[in-house]
Every structure is written in structure tokens, then in C-alpha cells.
Write a structure and sequence with these properties.
Two copies of one chain form a homodimer. With 244 residues, the first copy, chain A, is an alpha+beta fold. Chain A has two domains: 2-138, Jelly Rolls; 163-243, Winged helix-like DNA-binding domain superfamily/Winged helix DNA-binding domain (Arc Repressor Mutant, subunit A). Helix content of chain A is 38%, strand content 20%. Chain A contains eight helices and eleven strands. Chain A has helices at 16-23, 37-43, 126-134, 139-161, 166-178, 192-199, 203-215, 231-242, and strands spanning 48-52, 57-59, 67-73, 76-81, 87-93, 98-99, 112-115, 119-125, 187-188, 219-221, 226-229. In chain A, α6 (192-199) crosses α7 (203-215). The longest helix of chain A is centred in the middle third of the chain and has 23 residues, at 139-161. Chain A is globular and about 55 Å long. At the A-B interface, β4, β5, α4 and α8 of A face β4, β5, α4 and α8 of B. Chain A binds a DNA duplex (30 and 30 nucleotides) through residues 165-166, 191-193, 201-205, 207-208, 210-211.
DNA sequence: CGAGCCGTTGAGGGGATTCAAGCTCAGTGG
DNA sequence: CCACTGAGCTTGAATCCCCTCAACGGCTCG
């Protein structure tokens, strides 16, 4: 057993998942941050933590699923297929984000959600959210906050990553990926084909620009699918780009 | 306004705005469609209908406003300014849509909302939504539906209108504008500069492509800022474009 | 070791931008 | 009445950026 300090009066009464939720490092930023300890006790048996490898679908577009998910670690991408048949990544989710919220409305998932890195999720049945929401607590508001955050992310994706010169779009993408860096400061460096699906360009163009930025020492590969960024150089490059 | 004067002219014992709300042609599709007649009686005095000319800002980005709006007629666009300083239209709203929802969360408006056509709005104070939401009725769920719709619109904007050849993007935009056609079947035909801000292209390119489609009889101007579409030709052109 | 995936680089062509010049049309004022 | 203006739209020509097609190298894995 762990030497983790647990209040004595509760030591034997708590479910392992309840302890996990109480100790969850993203709890304050996550959906159930508004719940108290009593609330946590009610939910522990229904929430499942799961870990996924990269490129594993969390859910598919069109299916009405029974659960939402909180991202505890890693990056998840949302994909759509255009009328012409090619994939387009429309948004990313990272630590603390809630994904698959449309399931709460009994709607089919709007996108395909796929892991980009190793990902840790908390799977939350929608029936649980329904119960907690009926109490008239802070949960509905918290859910609306999540929706607004997702909307904001999608709109800024349009504004920042969908127009302008290819080099500038790549730079802005790197800036965004820096927000999802892990504790060691390593970012997820997408495959060239994924960069293409995010920024609306071909793999060749993505490759040329990443190579160029590597030669400029803005980004340097670090492990498989990882990289380190020189934030100073990145901001400098962006400033030069936006000066036009 | 805490104490409003009770109208003396209550011929049918209902406030004029209550009658207006009850008779509202978008009510079933709009936010308060879930309220019964009694609920409508409670809200009538607080909701204001307003009519705006084209190119009038409804609210600005950054300011935390006291109201949300339901679009009763016309088209509203959401704009952002990129780091380089140019405008980008990230989403449209039309009849039945709710706009400015972030005000409910006491957050500043995320975008600049500007009328594209003559627009009729219903202005709803956020305090009113708060009161109605405390009853634990269907309103919170209805609000979440609105958020999801907005998110869906923003994501499909990325997927459909932000990549591919310029001609295809213009065709898809026309298809989308057809959803906002008025009762006479006339669509709003944006200025070329607005098309550019929506699709990430220059005014010249937008002009060339619209002219081309006009020569192909896919679209024909109809009144100021208006047009008629040949939907058959439009779908045909899209099919040819997506065949690649 | 060959197969396959991924990344890289080159050459050439095409689509969009840039720069520039006219155009229509409504509003203005001589 | 008509020149004058300015905004929006259109079109042309030259340039450039990105796509397409192609070849090659590194790497993993059967």
C-alpha cells in the first residue's frame, strides 16, 4: 500500500477511485473541481481511468456514446472528413479539457476523437452527469464553461491556423503545441501528414517548413514524435512574420 | 428595472411583448421554445426586440455585456483580428441562433458580432436567464444545445471553408448562405472583401470566382447585396469539384 | 533483406497574390 | 445637368507561393 497521507477517519471508508479523484492533479481545473468531498464519494465507482496509446480513437463521429471524457494527460485531436474525402483536424484538446460533451445532449459525437500522444483519460458516464446536474449545483455552469472553451478554441483555430502564409501557420501551431507541453517541456511534434491536416497544406510543404525551422534552431526533435522549442526564437520568428 | 408599471390596456390580459413572444415565429426553434405560456408571461417585460441595419456591431470583443441575443431574422457574422492585424470571419449566425452566450458566464464576448443584413434581434438580459435557470427546468439543457450548435458550426467552418481550392470554398460558402435565405429565396451575397475574410483569400480572387460563377449562371445578383442561386447548378459544380 | 512507412529534397507547373488600371454607381455640389 | 468624387467590383499581367510528381534515405518490422 502507498504511504500516501490519508485522513485516518476516512482511511478505510474510501474507495480507491475516490482517493484517485481527490488526489487528481487536474481536479481543480477539471469538470469535478466544483464538487466537494462528499460529491466525490458519490461518483468514484462510476469513473474509470484509462490510458491509451497514440493514434487510438476515443470515439467516432456519428455514434451516440454513453460517456464524456476528461483529459488528464496527453493530446487528443478532433477530425472531420470533408466532402472531398480528406481528413481535416479542426481542434485539439489537452490536459484538463472535457471531450465528447455532445453525448450529454444525447447527440452523436460531432467529430472523431483520436489520441495524438499517450493519453490518460477519465471516462465519465453521462448518466452520472445527469444525476449530479439535477441537484442544481454548479455543475451545469461548469459544463457551459467547457463548451465555451471548446468554441473559443475552434474559432481561434479558424483565425490563427487557417489563413496566411504556410510558414506563419506552422509557427502559430508550434506556439499552440507549446501549451500542451509535458512536465519536461517536451512538445508533441505531429507527423508531417498531421500538420498538413491541421493547417490545410501538403505533407511536402509541412516537411519543408519544419526542416527550415529546425535549421533555424527554432525547433529540435527530441525523442519519437517529440521536440523542444526555442521559445525566444519562435516568438522572434512570429514577430518577423506578423510585421508584414 | 425592478418594478415595472402594469399596463392598463390589458385587453387580453397579456402584455404586448408577451403576445409578441407567444406569436414569435422562431419561438419553437429559439431559446424560450421550452417555456410554457406562464413562463412567457414572466419574461415579456425584460425582452426587447430591436432592428439593426447592415454592418452595425451588436457587441464588441473583450467587453463583458449584460445580455444575449436571439436572431429573429437576418445574418450576423463573428469576427476576430489575427496577430497580423487582419480581420477574419470565423462563423455566421442566422434565424433562431443564440449569440453572445459567453455573457451568461460573465466572460467577455469572444468575438465581434456584426450584422451582415438588416437584422431583427431579441435582447435578453443575462439576469433573466439566471432566474429561469434556477428553477431547474429545461433551460440549461437548451443552452447547452446552443453551445453545441455553435461549436459544430465553428468546426465545420474549419473543415469546409478553410482548405482546398478557392473555387470550392466559394461554392461551399454559397451552399451555406442558402441556409440563411429569406422567405423570398434571396441569399445574402457578401461583399468581396467579406468573402475574403471568410475564406482566407484576397478580394481579387473572390471577385474573379464570383464573376466566374455568375457567368456559369450558378449565382445571379438580385438587389443590393442579394443574389439568387441555381441550386441544381451549384450542387453540380460542387460534385465536379469534389470529384478530384 | 525486402517491404512499408515516414521524412526529405528537387523540379516543374498551377493557382493565388500582388500590383495596377478601369469600371460602375450612388452621392455631392458646382 | 453634369463633372467630381469615392467605394466597391472587375480584369489584366507578373510574381510568388504552394502543390504535384518524383526520387531517395532512414527506420522499423516481419
Amino acid at each position: 500500500m502507498s504511504a500516501h497521507p490519508i485522513p485516518l477517519y476516512r482511511q478505510d471508508e474510501r474507495h480507491p477511485q475516490a482517493r484517485a479523484c481527490a488526489a487528481c492533479e487536474v481536479r481543480s481545473a477539471a469538470l469535478f473541481g466544483v464538487l466537494d468531498e462528499g460529491g466525490l464519494d458519490r461518483i468514484h465507482t462510476h469513473i474509470a481511468g484509462l490510458t491509451l496509446e497514440p493514434d487510438i480513437p476515443v470515439y467516432g463521429r456519428g455514434s451516440a456514446g454513453p460517456a464524456v471524457y476528461t483529459v488528464r494527460a496527453g493530446v487528443v485531436r478532433f477530425e472531420r472528413t470533408t466532402a472531398r474525402g480528406d481528413r481535416r483536424i479542426v481542434r485539439l484538446a489537452g490536459r484538463g479539457d472535457l471531450i465528447g460533451q455532445e453525448a450529454l445532449l444525447r447527440r452523436p459525437y460531432a467529430d472523431e476523437a483520436i489520441t495524438c500522444t499517450p493519453v490518460q483519460l477519465c471516462r465519465i458516464p453521462i448518466t452520472l452527469i445527469d444525476e449530479l446536474g439535477q441537484d442544481g449545483g454548479a455543475l451545469p455552469r461548469e459544463l457551459m464553461q467547457r463548451w465555451q472553451s471548446a468554441l473559443d478554441a475552434a474559432e481561434s483555430w479558424v483565425a490563427e491556423l487557417s489563413s496566411g502564409l504556410a510558414r506563419r501557420r506552422v509557427l502559430r501551431l508550434l506556439l499552440r503545441l507549446a501549451d500542451h507541453a509535458d512536465e519536461a517541456g517536451t512538445i508533441w511534434l505531429p507527423r508531417r501528414e498531421e500538420i498538413g491536416a491541421m493547417l490545410g497544406m501538403t505533407v511536402e510543404t509541412a516537411s519543408r517548413l519544419v526542416s527550415q525551422l529546425r535549421r533555424e534552431a527554432v525547433v529540435q526533435p527530441f525523442g519519437p514524435r517529440g521536440a523542444r522549442l526555442d521559445m525566444t526564437a519562435l516568438h522572434e520568428a512570429l514577430r518577423a512574420e506578423d510585421a508584414a
